[in-house]
Amino acid sequence: MPTPSIFADRRGLIGFATLCCLLWGSAVPAVKFGYGLIGIVPGDTASLLLFAGIRFCLAGVILLVYGLLTGRSIALTPKRLGQVTLLGLGQTTVQYICYYVGLAHTTAVKTSILSSTLVFFSVLLAHFIYPDDKLSGRKALGCLIGFAGVVVVNIAAAGTLDFHFSLLGEGLLLVSTFTGSAAAIYGRRLSHEMDATVMTGWQLLLGGVVLTIMGLVGGGHFASFSLGAAALVLYLATVSAVAFALWSLLLRHNAVGAVAVFNFEIPIFGAILAALVLGESVFEWKNLAALVLVSVGIYLVTTRGRTAAPVTQ
Description:
With 313 residues, the chain is mainly alpha-helical. The chain has helices spanning 4-8, 10-38, 45-69, 78-104, 108-115, 118-129, 137-158, 167-190, 196-217, 227-253, 256-260, 265-277, 285-302. It has one domain (4-302). The chain contains 13 helices and no strands. Helix 3 (45-69) packs across helix 10, helix 7 (137-158) runs parallel beside helix 12 (265-277) and helix 9 (196-217) packs across helix 10 (227-253). The longest helix has 29 residues, at 10-38.
Protein backbone atom coordinates (compact mmCIF):
# COMPACT_ATOMS: atom_id res chain seq x y z
CA MET A 1 0.00 0.00 0.00
CA PRO A 2 1.40 3.47 -0.90
CA THR A 3 2.61 5.78 1.86
CA PRO A 4 -0.09 7.98 3.48
CA SER A 5 1.44 11.25 2.22
CA ILE A 6 0.75 10.36 -1.40
CA PHE A 7 -3.00 10.30 -0.74
CA ALA A 8 -2.87 13.92 0.49
CA ASP A 9 -0.97 15.09 -2.60
CA ARG A 10 -3.19 16.49 -5.37
CA ARG A 11 -1.61 14.27 -8.00
CA GLY A 12 -2.16 11.29 -5.73
CA LEU A 13 -5.77 12.31 -5.21
CA ILE A 14 -6.41 12.55 -8.96
CA GLY A 15 -4.52 9.36 -9.77
CA PHE A 16 -5.97 7.10 -7.08
CA ALA A 17 -9.52 8.51 -7.29
CA THR A 18 -9.53 8.03 -11.06
CA LEU A 19 -8.19 4.48 -10.61
CA CYS A 20 -11.02 3.71 -8.15
CA CYS A 21 -13.64 5.04 -10.55
CA LEU A 22 -12.08 3.14 -13.46
CA LEU A 23 -12.27 -0.06 -11.41
CA TRP A 24 -15.88 0.60 -10.39
CA GLY A 25 -16.69 1.53 -13.98
CA SER A 26 -15.22 -1.77 -15.18
CA ALA A 27 -17.58 -3.54 -12.80
CA VAL A 28 -20.61 -2.21 -14.74
CA PRO A 29 -20.17 -4.39 -17.87
CA ALA A 30 -18.61 -7.17 -15.75
CA VAL A 31 -21.68 -7.42 -13.51
CA LYS A 32 -24.02 -7.47 -16.50
CA PHE A 33 -21.89 -10.20 -18.09
CA GLY A 34 -21.93 -12.09 -14.80
CA TYR A 35 -25.72 -12.07 -14.66
CA GLY A 36 -25.75 -13.94 -17.96
CA LEU A 37 -23.15 -16.46 -16.80
CA ILE A 38 -25.05 -17.44 -13.67
CA GLY A 39 -28.55 -16.99 -15.03
CA ILE A 40 -29.88 -13.97 -13.09
CA VAL A 41 -32.61 -11.91 -14.71
CA PRO A 42 -32.60 -8.14 -13.90
CA GLY A 43 -35.87 -8.26 -11.96
CA ASP A 44 -34.77 -11.10 -9.64
CA THR A 45 -33.85 -8.86 -6.69
CA ALA A 46 -33.15 -11.72 -4.26
CA SER A 47 -30.60 -13.29 -6.61
CA LEU A 48 -29.05 -9.88 -7.27
CA LEU A 49 -28.61 -9.38 -3.52
CA LEU A 50 -27.11 -12.86 -3.18
CA PHE A 51 -24.66 -12.14 -5.99
CA ALA A 52 -23.68 -8.79 -4.44
CA GLY A 53 -23.41 -10.32 -0.97
CA ILE A 54 -21.00 -13.03 -2.07
CA ARG A 55 -18.95 -10.46 -3.97
CA PHE A 56 -18.62 -8.15 -0.98
CA CYS A 57 -17.97 -10.97 1.50
CA LEU A 58 -15.10 -12.16 -0.66
CA ALA A 59 -13.81 -8.59 -1.02
CA GLY A 60 -13.80 -8.22 2.75
CA VAL A 61 -11.93 -11.51 3.19
CA ILE A 62 -9.32 -10.39 0.63
CA LEU A 63 -8.65 -7.17 2.55
CA LEU A 64 -8.52 -8.86 5.95
CA VAL A 65 -6.10 -11.52 4.67
CA TYR A 66 -4.00 -8.72 3.17
CA GLY A 67 -4.09 -7.01 6.56
CA LEU A 68 -2.81 -10.13 8.29
CA LEU A 69 -0.06 -10.65 5.71
CA THR A 70 1.15 -7.07 6.17
CA GLY A 71 1.28 -7.30 9.97
CA ARG A 72 -1.93 -5.46 10.76
CA SER A 73 -4.13 -6.53 13.65
CA ILE A 74 -7.64 -7.36 12.42
CA ALA A 75 -9.03 -8.04 15.90
CA LEU A 76 -11.91 -5.77 16.95
CA THR A 77 -12.97 -4.57 20.37
CA PRO A 78 -16.73 -4.63 21.05
CA LYS A 79 -16.81 -0.87 20.39
CA ARG A 80 -14.99 -1.19 17.07
CA LEU A 81 -17.18 -4.15 16.07
CA GLY A 82 -20.27 -2.03 16.61
CA GLN A 83 -18.77 0.84 14.60
CA VAL A 84 -17.73 -1.24 11.58
CA THR A 85 -21.05 -3.10 11.68
CA LEU A 86 -22.89 0.22 11.49
CA LEU A 87 -20.61 1.29 8.65
CA GLY A 88 -21.13 -2.00 6.80
CA LEU A 89 -24.90 -1.82 7.17
CA GLY A 90 -24.91 1.71 5.75
CA GLN A 91 -22.22 1.58 3.08
CA THR A 92 -22.86 -1.95 1.84
CA THR A 93 -26.17 -3.46 3.01
CA VAL A 94 -28.73 -0.62 2.97
CA GLN A 95 -27.11 1.16 0.04
CA TYR A 96 -27.21 -1.90 -2.22
CA ILE A 97 -30.64 -3.14 -1.11
CA CYS A 98 -32.10 0.24 -2.05
CA TYR A 99 -30.04 0.29 -5.24
CA TYR A 100 -31.17 -3.11 -6.54
CA VAL A 101 -34.82 -2.68 -5.55
CA GLY A 102 -34.83 0.80 -7.08
CA LEU A 103 -33.15 -0.50 -10.23
CA ALA A 104 -35.92 -3.08 -10.63
CA HIS A 105 -38.53 -0.29 -10.67
CA THR A 106 -36.95 2.25 -13.02
CA THR A 107 -34.76 2.50 -16.10
CA ALA A 108 -30.99 1.95 -16.29
CA VAL A 109 -30.53 5.52 -17.57
CA LYS A 110 -32.32 7.07 -14.62
CA THR A 111 -30.45 4.73 -12.29
CA SER A 112 -27.10 5.97 -13.59
CA ILE A 113 -28.12 9.62 -13.36
CA LEU A 114 -29.69 9.36 -9.89
CA SER A 115 -26.71 7.38 -8.58
CA SER A 116 -24.57 10.42 -9.38
CA THR A 117 -26.52 12.50 -6.84
CA LEU A 118 -24.21 10.86 -4.28
CA VAL A 119 -21.79 13.68 -5.07
CA PHE A 120 -24.34 16.35 -4.13
CA PHE A 121 -25.29 14.59 -0.90
CA SER A 122 -21.62 14.19 0.04
CA VAL A 123 -20.81 17.83 -0.62
CA LEU A 124 -23.87 19.09 1.28
CA LEU A 125 -23.33 16.82 4.30
CA ALA A 126 -19.64 17.73 4.44
CA HIS A 127 -20.59 21.42 4.38
CA PHE A 128 -22.49 21.02 7.67
CA ILE A 129 -20.07 18.59 9.34
CA TYR A 130 -16.54 19.72 8.44
CA PRO A 131 -15.44 23.37 8.83
CA ASP A 132 -12.68 22.82 6.24
CA ASP A 133 -15.08 21.53 3.58
CA LYS A 134 -17.60 24.34 3.06
CA LEU A 135 -19.72 24.60 -0.06
CA SER A 136 -18.58 27.43 -2.34
CA GLY A 137 -19.89 28.81 -5.62
CA ARG A 138 -16.94 27.26 -7.45
CA LYS A 139 -17.56 23.85 -5.88
CA ALA A 140 -21.30 24.01 -6.63
CA LEU A 141 -20.59 24.96 -10.26
CA GLY A 142 -18.10 22.09 -10.58
CA CYS A 143 -20.67 19.61 -9.24
CA LEU A 144 -23.34 20.87 -11.66
CA ILE A 145 -20.98 20.67 -14.65
CA GLY A 146 -19.87 17.17 -13.67
CA PHE A 147 -23.49 16.09 -13.26
CA ALA A 148 -24.24 17.50 -16.71
CA GLY A 149 -21.59 15.14 -18.09
CA VAL A 150 -23.37 12.14 -16.58
CA VAL A 151 -26.71 13.33 -17.98
CA VAL A 152 -25.20 13.83 -21.45
CA VAL A 153 -23.76 10.32 -21.75
CA ASN A 154 -26.99 8.71 -20.54
CA ILE A 155 -29.57 10.83 -22.36
CA ALA A 156 -27.62 10.57 -25.60
CA ALA A 157 -27.60 6.78 -25.25
CA ALA A 158 -31.32 6.51 -24.47
CA GLY A 159 -32.54 9.33 -26.68
CA THR A 160 -35.04 10.50 -24.07
CA LEU A 161 -35.74 10.70 -20.35
CA ASP A 162 -39.12 10.52 -18.70
CA PHE A 163 -39.77 12.41 -15.49
CA HIS A 164 -41.93 9.81 -13.77
CA PHE A 165 -41.07 9.43 -10.08
CA SER A 166 -41.97 6.47 -7.86
CA LEU A 167 -40.97 5.76 -4.27
CA LEU A 168 -39.96 2.17 -5.07
CA GLY A 169 -37.88 3.24 -8.04
CA GLU A 170 -36.37 6.72 -8.03
CA GLY A 171 -37.15 7.20 -4.34
CA LEU A 172 -35.10 4.21 -3.21
CA LEU A 173 -32.24 5.17 -5.53
CA LEU A 174 -32.05 8.53 -3.78
CA VAL A 175 -32.11 6.76 -0.40
CA SER A 176 -29.26 4.58 -1.67
CA THR A 177 -27.09 7.54 -2.65
CA PHE A 178 -27.84 9.44 0.55
CA THR A 179 -27.00 6.39 2.67
CA GLY A 180 -23.79 5.84 0.74
CA SER A 181 -22.65 9.43 1.16
CA ALA A 182 -23.53 9.53 4.87
CA ALA A 183 -21.73 6.22 5.45
CA ALA A 184 -18.65 7.45 3.59
CA ILE A 185 -18.46 10.51 5.84
CA TYR A 186 -18.87 8.31 8.92
CA GLY A 187 -16.16 6.03 7.55
CA ARG A 188 -13.86 9.00 7.10
CA ARG A 189 -14.16 9.84 10.78
CA LEU A 190 -13.72 6.20 11.80
CA SER A 191 -10.62 5.82 9.59
CA HIS A 192 -8.79 8.26 11.87
CA GLU A 193 -9.35 5.89 14.78
CA MET A 194 -8.43 2.57 13.15
CA ASP A 195 -6.55 1.19 10.14
CA ALA A 196 -8.48 2.09 6.97
CA THR A 197 -7.73 -1.24 5.27
CA VAL A 198 -8.96 -3.29 8.24
CA MET A 199 -11.99 -1.02 8.61
CA THR A 200 -12.92 -1.46 4.96
CA GLY A 201 -12.38 -5.21 5.08
CA TRP A 202 -14.69 -5.67 8.04
CA GLN A 203 -17.41 -3.37 6.72
CA LEU A 204 -17.46 -5.18 3.36
CA LEU A 205 -17.52 -8.60 5.03
CA LEU A 206 -20.22 -7.76 7.58
CA GLY A 207 -22.36 -5.82 5.12
CA GLY A 208 -21.92 -8.60 2.56
CA VAL A 209 -23.00 -11.28 5.05
CA VAL A 210 -26.30 -9.48 5.62
CA LEU A 211 -26.86 -9.12 1.86
CA THR A 212 -26.11 -12.83 1.36
CA ILE A 213 -28.54 -13.89 4.09
CA MET A 214 -31.28 -11.64 2.73
CA GLY A 215 -30.72 -13.01 -0.76
CA LEU A 216 -30.96 -16.62 0.44
CA VAL A 217 -34.04 -15.92 2.59
CA GLY A 218 -35.68 -14.21 -0.37
CA GLY A 219 -35.16 -17.28 -2.55
CA GLY A 220 -32.14 -16.04 -4.44
CA HIS A 221 -30.25 -18.64 -6.42
CA PHE A 222 -27.88 -19.11 -9.35
CA ALA A 223 -29.21 -21.07 -12.32
CA SER A 224 -25.64 -22.10 -13.18
CA PHE A 225 -22.15 -21.49 -11.88
CA SER A 226 -19.13 -22.24 -14.05
CA LEU A 227 -15.39 -21.75 -13.67
CA GLY A 228 -15.75 -18.59 -15.73
CA ALA A 229 -18.42 -17.29 -13.34
CA ALA A 230 -16.15 -18.00 -10.36
CA ALA A 231 -13.30 -16.09 -12.02
CA LEU A 232 -15.63 -13.15 -12.69
CA VAL A 233 -16.84 -13.07 -9.08
CA LEU A 234 -13.21 -13.11 -7.92
CA TYR A 235 -12.43 -10.20 -10.26
CA LEU A 236 -15.40 -8.18 -8.98
CA ALA A 237 -14.45 -8.92 -5.37
CA THR A 238 -10.88 -7.77 -6.03
CA VAL A 239 -12.17 -4.60 -7.69
CA SER A 240 -14.32 -3.86 -4.64
CA ALA A 241 -11.50 -4.61 -2.21
CA VAL A 242 -8.94 -2.39 -3.94
CA ALA A 243 -11.30 0.47 -4.82
CA PHE A 244 -13.03 0.71 -1.44
CA ALA A 245 -9.73 0.51 0.46
CA LEU A 246 -8.12 3.26 -1.64
CA TRP A 247 -11.27 5.38 -1.44
CA SER A 248 -11.26 5.16 2.36
CA LEU A 249 -7.64 6.33 2.41
CA LEU A 250 -8.44 9.21 0.07
CA LEU A 251 -11.32 10.32 2.30
CA ARG A 252 -9.06 10.13 5.34
CA HIS A 253 -6.51 12.51 3.83
CA ASN A 254 -8.68 14.88 1.76
CA ALA A 255 -11.81 16.97 1.99
CA VAL A 256 -14.97 14.99 1.24
CA GLY A 257 -16.03 17.18 -1.67
CA ALA A 258 -12.63 16.89 -3.37
CA VAL A 259 -12.93 13.09 -3.35
CA ALA A 260 -16.68 12.68 -3.92
CA VAL A 261 -16.68 14.68 -7.18
CA PHE A 262 -14.71 11.87 -8.86
CA ASN A 263 -17.84 9.69 -8.61
CA PHE A 264 -18.99 11.43 -11.78
CA GLU A 265 -16.33 9.44 -13.63
CA ILE A 266 -17.90 6.06 -12.83
CA PRO A 267 -20.80 6.13 -15.35
CA ILE A 268 -18.49 7.64 -17.97
CA PHE A 269 -15.93 4.85 -17.57
CA GLY A 270 -18.79 2.34 -17.44
CA ALA A 271 -20.20 3.58 -20.76
CA ILE A 272 -16.79 3.61 -22.45
CA LEU A 273 -15.81 0.14 -21.20
CA ALA A 274 -19.23 -1.26 -22.11
CA ALA A 275 -18.75 0.12 -25.64
CA LEU A 276 -15.35 -1.58 -25.84
CA VAL A 277 -16.82 -4.91 -24.68
CA LEU A 278 -19.60 -4.63 -27.25
CA GLY A 279 -17.17 -3.60 -29.99
CA GLU A 280 -18.64 -0.12 -30.33
CA SER A 281 -16.70 3.09 -30.94
CA VAL A 282 -15.76 4.93 -27.75
CA PHE A 283 -15.03 8.13 -29.68
CA GLU A 284 -18.65 9.17 -29.92
CA TRP A 285 -19.60 12.76 -29.20
CA LYS A 286 -21.55 11.80 -26.09
CA ASN A 287 -18.53 10.11 -24.46
CA LEU A 288 -16.12 12.89 -25.40
CA ALA A 289 -18.52 15.63 -24.26
CA ALA A 290 -19.17 13.80 -20.99
CA LEU A 291 -15.44 13.37 -20.32
CA VAL A 292 -14.82 17.08 -20.94
CA LEU A 293 -17.68 18.16 -18.66
CA VAL A 294 -16.70 15.77 -15.86
CA SER A 295 -13.05 16.82 -16.13
CA VAL A 296 -13.97 20.50 -15.89
CA GLY A 297 -16.19 19.78 -12.89
CA ILE A 298 -13.42 17.88 -11.12
CA TYR A 299 -10.94 20.67 -11.87
CA LEU A 300 -13.24 23.31 -10.37
CA VAL A 301 -13.84 21.31 -7.19
CA THR A 302 -10.27 20.17 -6.57
CA THR A 303 -8.18 23.22 -7.46
CA ARG A 304 -9.34 25.55 -4.75
CA GLY A 305 -10.34 25.27 -1.13
CA ARG A 306 -9.10 21.73 -0.49
CA THR A 307 -6.76 20.88 2.35
CA ALA A 308 -3.60 19.06 1.43
CA ALA A 309 -2.81 18.06 5.00
CA PRO A 310 -4.65 15.23 6.74
CA VAL A 311 -7.74 16.24 8.66
CA THR A 312 -7.91 14.81 12.17
CA GLN A 313 -11.49 15.48 13.10
